[in-house]
Write a structure and sequence with these properties.
alpha+beta; 4-stranded mixed sheet; flat
Amino acid sequence: MTKRKAIDDTPDVIDMTLPGGIEQAEKVLKKKRKRQRYPHRRVFYDDHWFDSIDEREQYKDLVLRVAAGEIRDLVVHPRYLILPAFEYRGEHVRPINYTADFAYFEGDQCVVEDVKSVRTAGARDYQLIVKRFKSLYREIEFREVVR
């Protein structure tokens, strides 16, 4: 009877001094790197982490609008309850929250903005969250900024 080869046969320790050690290490790194679903680069700016460069640029624009007096009470990454926690057949189901990119007031109107790429804006899970948000928070204007 032959012994089956394990699916993940990468060694725990790679000896770089042995012949082929560097090549083996490169193989392991390539294999273990997980590709992002929606590639982006997180950016730190003005004491906030932003999920993308586009989001940071939108923040800069909004800060200028606050300084000009066009908008007020800018909040970065506000959270909204989409589905409260509940019990299902004795099991606790955790709540679902939606974290928008920005919220602010334009006059008396509360506005929530979300910066998305074209690809992310078309994702079904994102569209479902947005529809649920709009149904629950009808008094808030939702703006999707596609960059």
